[in-house]
Each structure stands twice: as structure tokens, then as C-alpha cells.
């Protein structure tokens, strides 16, 4: 994303110390806090050269309002807060639109102020950030000004209208409308729709192009929580929606290989569930935590989290939910090489699944059907090294999947390709791998790319088998970060 190169104006009166920002630094030294700022910037794809001197200037009040790159970083570090909460003044008080448009060319950063990120391209599913500093005479500058003003000066509900816009969940014009400072039904519905929208886009395209886009709605959700709600029932829906959104954003981080970010988002959702006594949200948060722990190589934690999820879910009356949670437990047992524990959990998952659907099934479980059941079982057998059973279940999963779930079709087929390769059936593995490569123009998932890279490494010694050379050549020509060429990751 392009960040502002125009810095805040310097005051014409003695600066007032920013005590709020100093309190946020706590016992850390300016240098230690600057390191945290740089780390937070990397988490959201920004580049800032923050150092102890910059922190000192902020705390001294010399920087009354940061540039847009630092704004995004600070709001990422302190979710649910505005710049004014961090001790800064509204942008409109230090620079008006007239001052911006009167400048023939953007000025560089003020002496001593680190620059923001240089201009760069955005991903194929990532629209332009509505709060970035648009170049003069950009066709969208009026709309962007409206969004910035709404984001900086409005209450929590206004923030929601502005920040849901990047996902197409709220028209940009809504941000200009005066909205109530406390959240009502319209804001809750917008939040719930954001969750559905993210899940729909993930089903079709995978997580990699969506993760950064989803950060703005998540900030908006916590701003709404901070603003409060008009009724208790609205507040309950607001907490549930914010928790589900945190899980959805956590999943995008998880599937795109950002495990630390995912763990943080899942923990946030779990805390929200515990505060409100929401057993359904707690079960969901533990469910995803178990899946993450398995993928991160912490199988014992995966087992414990899955068992905690089952305890939370038992009173809810959803056999399908308990079935999925049993599969999460099975994945942990497989990671521990406990075949008996895995088989018992798989049998329990199958028996619960056969009880059928119920009104108590959570909305977020729409992905869980015959295909997902088979796919997760395939992963268990693969972890245990039983490639024949793994390939049989993976094939069943790919064939049973609803065409709507493009990402899952690619995932199950990638699983099939890897299992076939390891089973010693290179020609069939290459055929499945080619089908996955054909879907990568629609799906962006680091998980799938990593699986294909592993398959390519296994198939390298079998280049002469039917279709293998074609798969290896096409895989090597992919621009993905995990392509394999001559036996080494690119």
C-alpha cells in the first residue's frame, strides 16, 4: 500500500507532551518500543524506520499527528483506539485539504521523521486502501477525504461504516452520513455481513490476498465494542460478531502461514467468548486453535484445545459440531503418532456426523460436509504415514466437494497429489498436481502452495514417469514463493 509522504505540520506554539502515548510505552525504553513498532509494521506489510528519536518526538508533542503509514501501524498495535485516544490531534487540525491540494508536489518527510512505505503494487484481491494519501488530482480524492474524516472524527459506528468499505460491505458514501455514537442494529448487521463476506471470499480465493484487507473490519468491530451498544441484546450480538470476525481473520492468517498472527486473533476471540459466556464462540475459538496447533507442530496442544472445544460445545446440541471437534482431536493424536487415539477420535467423528444436521449447527460450519470429513481424515492418515488410506480419502474429498468451494477443491486435490506421490504412484500424482495448478489463478493459499512444493520434491526422482515432467516444469514456472526448481525451493 502507498503511504503518505506528507508529514504533519509543526506547531507554531510550544508542543504539548503526548502523555497518553507515553503511558502506552509503559516500562519499555524508547528503543524497545520503537522495535515493537517496526515489528507491528511488518505484521501488516508496512515499512517504517521507527527509532528511539521518533518515539521521543512523539512523546514530546513535536509530532502532533503521524503520517498515514504510522497511523496504520499504531492502530494495528492498539485495536479499537483512534489516534486521538493515542494522544494525537485530529488530522484536520494540523492540515486541511486546501493545504494539500495547493502543494504542487508531495514534500518529503520532515527532518528526523522516518518515511513511510514507498509506492508499490497491491495484490490481485486487495483494493486500494481508502485511507492512503492519494496523489493530487487522483479521481478518488474526495471520497478518500470523506473516509479519512469519518475514521478520525466519528464515533465507533462511523468507523464501522468507513472501515467495512474495503471489502465492499458498506458503500463509501455511508461513511459521510452522521451515525449514532453507540452501535445499533445496522452496525451489528454490517459486522455480521463482514464475517459472511470474508468467509465467502476465502471459500473462492483462499487467504493470501484477503488477510490484510480484513484488518480494517476487525479494527472497526473493536471500535464498535468500545463505543457500546444501545441495548443489551445488541451488545451480545456485537460481541459475538466481533469474536467471529477475529476467528475469520485469524483463519486468513493461519492459512497464509502467519501462525503468530493467527494465534493472537484466536486468543482475542476466546477472551471475548469467556467475557460474555458465549459457549458457541468459545467452542469455535478452541476448534481453530486446535487446528493451528496441529499445523504449527504442537500436537499435544491440539489435543487439549480440541477436548476443551468439545466440553464447551456439548450443551449446544450440535452433533455436527462435535464431529468436527473430534476430527480436530484426531489430528492431534496423529501428530503424536498415537494411532489408537486417532482411530478412536475418527470413529467418534463419523458416528456423530451420521446423526445429521440440526438447527443448532453454527452458521460458520457451512463448509463441513462429506468432503471435509473425508479430507480431514485423509490428513490424519497422511500424518500417520498410511498413504493408501490417505489417498483414498483425499480422492473421495475432492470428488464430493461442492464446486462453490474452489479453495477446498484445490486443497483436497493437492492432498491427493501428495499422498499418491508418497504412495509410489507418480503418474497419478502428477495428474492431480496439474489439476491444482490450473486452479491457482483463482486460489491464493500458502498452505496449498507448500503442499505442491512437497509433492514436487517427492516427484523429482520420477521425472520420466508419465506427466511428471510436465507437472514439475509448470510448477517451477509458477511465481509462487514455494516453487521448486532442480530440487530446491525457489
Describe this structure in words.
Helix content is 61%, strand content 1%. The N terminus and C terminus are likely disordered. The chain contains 22 helices and 2 strands. A two-stranded antiparallel ribbon has the order 1-2.
Task: Indicate the topology.
Blueprint: H1 19-25, H2 30-43, H3 52-60, H4 68-77, H5 91-94, H6 97-101, H7 141-153, H8 156-163, H9 185-205, H10 211-227, H11 232-255, H12 259-276, H13 279-295, H14 299-313, H15 319-335, H16 339-353, H17 370-383, H18 387-400, H19 406-423, H20 426-439, H21 446-459, H22 468-477, E1 484-485, E2 488-489
Helix pairs in contact: 2-3, 2-4, 7-8, 8-10, 9-10, 9-11, 10-11, 11-12, 11-13, 12-13, 13-14, 13-15, 14-15, 15-16, 15-17, 17-18, 17-19, 18-19, 19-20, 19-21, 20-22, 21-22
Overview in brief:
This protein has 490 residues and is an all-alpha fold.
Spell out the key features of this protein:
two-stranded antiparallel ribbon, 490 residues, 2 strands, 61% helix, mainly alpha, 22 helices
Write the element-wise H/E pattern from the N-terminal end onward: HHHHHHHHHHHHHHHHHHHHHHEE
Low-confidence segments: 1-12, 95-180, 480-490
The coarse overall form would be: globular
Rounded to the nearest angstrom, the distance between the terminal CA atoms is: 25 Å
Q: How many strands in all?
A: 2
Helical content (DSSP H or I, runs of 4+): 55-70%
Helix count, per DSSP? Answer: 22
* Major sheet characteristics: 2 strands, antiparallel
> Mind telling me the C-alpha Rg?
25 Å
Structural class: mainly alpha
